[in-house]
Amino acid sequence: MHYRTVLRGGSAAVVAELAVEVERQLSGLIEATVEQIRAEMPVYHDARFVSLAELRTSVRNNLEYVMRTLRGTEEPDLAQARATGRARALQGAPLPELLRAYRIGLTEVWNRFVELTASGEHQDLRGLVAATSAIWALVDDYAEALTTTYRDTTAEVMLAHQSRRSALVEALFAGGAATEGTLWDIARVLELSLDGTYVVVAAETPRVGHEPLPQIENRLRDRCHASAWRLTPDLQVGVVSMRDQSASQVIIELLGENQIGRIGVSPVFTGLGNTSRALHLARVALSSMLPGTTGMVQFNESPLAGLVASAPEASVQLAHHVLRPILDLPGDDRNVLLLTLRAWFECQGSTKLTSERMFCHPNTIRHRLKRISEELGRSLTDPADIAELGAALRALHMFPDTSHLPSPRDPLR
């Protein structure tokens, strides 16, 4: 400790004698310190973190300890400083203000020592030097003990808060078990509106433990948009407030920065209680993109893709059932017909545009489309057949590794 190395022999005796005199003025010293703190520091004057009674008690406890230490009747023990540091950290009082309050208190003690050594029989420059050294050594000791305890406590509080926040985010995305009371608590802790407007984002992780959207919550907060996120082994998911018109553009810009994988976004929804359902739709949107690609899809941008991705097994079964005659053809025939059919859908059924895309004559496209219709036994003018073909093509595009497999059997046969 600094204090132990400052006072030795005669110096300690001089300081102890002065301390006895100052201690007789302790009541006035306490009140003067309280008034000085409140006059110079609005945070204490307004009782923002500490009431007047709490402040007075804290000043008394700390000054009594200081005087006992300076008198030499008690070994230096910084337990009171640590207790104050912990209490103020739990109350959320700012550390700089806390240290300033301590300096004000010890400065008041020093002023009393100055008054004693500057007049009467105690007039002694060496005594003043010794007292000054002792008091400011205590300031250093106090500041070190208080700061260390304050920071340790703040870290504990932040860790506990983060653990609770993570649990509440998990409950929000899990849904089901969240009661109205729980949702209110979640909204309060996460600083989200219970009946606000949101989207859910699901971003694919590049590898376990690595965020695809690093610092996204802070980046959104910097743009005045509240959000809450959690990281799983395969996804980073978040619910983002859409409280104003600029939110959509801000989110798109931030998600697009340094994009490294697939990102799915839910439709816009209202009510925090609908987050788990929106997460499902965001995952569906993500799954509508081919693995290994980079891009961002919002569920309502491609409802058919969302429908297919939400039921992979049924979609694969549909694809094999509808397209099996073409899938069973030799490789070149199969690939040409599938590419033609897909291009025809992407060109909104225009033979001319399809031919331009595939660099061949429109009559060639008409011949291929006629053959496709014959092979599949389906009409390219019947809306019902077109709908099934579109869904089958989408499923085959999303789950290409299944195109070579035998058609799934109907379990009822």
Automatic annotation (TrEMBL):
Limits of the PucR C-terminal helix-turn-helix domain: 337-395
InterPro entries: CdaR-like_regulators, CdaR_GGDEF, PucR_C-HTH_dom, PucR_C-HTH_sf, RsbRD_N_dom
Organism domain of life: Bacteria
Domain RsbT co-antagonist protein RsbRD N-terminal: 28-165
Pfam families: GGDEF_2, HTH_30, RsbRD_N
All copies of domain CdaR GGDEF-like, residue ranges: 178-287
Family: Belongs to the CdaR family.
UniProt name for this protein: PucR family transcriptional regulator
